[in-house]
Design brief:
alpha/beta; Metallo-beta-lactamase, Chain A; seven-stranded mixed β-sheet; 5 helices; about 30% strand
Amino acid sequence: MHYEDEQVEIHKLVVGPLDNNVYVLRCRKSGDALLVDAANDPERLLECCKTFSVREVVETHGHWDHIQAVPQLRQAGYPVAVHAEDAALLPGYDLALSDNELIEIGSLRIMTIHTPGHTPGSLCLSIEGSPVLISGDTLFPGGPGSTGGDEKSFATIIDSIQRRLFACLSDETIVMPGHGRDTSIGAERPHLEEWIARGW
């Protein structure tokens, strides 16, 4: 168990050569769950889907290291959702998401937050009633996700973090990124100007 409160259990698996974080968000009331980022190790993820009664898969973005198990999970009957602007990066998908879209899993209400920059269709997921943000590769301990030295993309991801995350979420919000360890909005917020100054 990676995190739990009254309404949700979050389980975390680390898979693949880039140590991708895969999260299972499970409604404690219904037992149904959402899997975030079918990154790699499809056999392990399929077993996880059965164990935790996964109903749907959501991709935070379409980069190759986050989508390696998508074909196998879709073949097994799990619908895969992704933001429309990253949909073409996937080998296949079932639902195109947009900003501020509500995903309901049991009694859990999970909102999409469109945070472009790392990719055009990058998404974060906010669990209503729980202090948790699944940030994909948008926000990490110590700064934003990589934009490959592209100034325009860097400006975009900074705007996404500033306007969609820091301006809307409390300091207590736990940030669970696509790789590595958790952080919090409160731990990262004071460093925004440093990131802008360094340019990455």
